[in-house]
Amino acid sequence: MIDDALLDATDRMEKALEALRRDLATVRTGRASPALVEHLKVDYYGAATPLNQLATISTPDARLITIQPWDRGSMGAIEKAILKSDIGLNPSNDGTLIRLAIPQLTEERRREIAKQVRKRAEEARVAVRNIRRDAHENIRHLEHEHEISQDDLHRAETELQKLTDEHIKEVDKAAHEKEEEVLAV
User: Fold this and answer.
1) Residue 42, burial from CB neighbour count under 10 angstroms (0-12, 13-18, 19+)
2) What is the pTM of this model?
3) Which domains are assigned to the chain?
């Protein structure tokens, strides 16, 4: 019973950490990366479809992302989705290929992006703590129902705190790496 609660908490904390990593991959760092645009939702024949399912996305150099749609009829919808997104890039369309030139980031913009990274990391920390709270309530409920002893409760609380500390450390590490990447010129 305790193992199930701890396993569930571990699984949910891993998912929160993975969500943060995916989220941080979409943060613009001044270098071209397909992750910036591949999950943009494009209104394709009435369905919100991820861009990576409609086109080939590549980075021929460090400052350029190219998007080559498989269906040329979707170019307008892809451009519209890029313009509506918050990545701040203007698409250039030549009829067969959409180019996204990534400008050099200013120092001020880098600091703003670093703040966004810290904010997203804090949200991930809160998510991990909420998972800890839920698991803690489950374990306390087991003890309240006399399904486990108080010794088991204390051991489980200690183990849960270790899990939480490990995952928060991983969140901090991921955020720190991204922040360094953003602030590097």
Assistant:
1) buried
2) 0.72
3) 2-25+107-183 (1.10.132.20), 34-101 (3.30.1360.40)
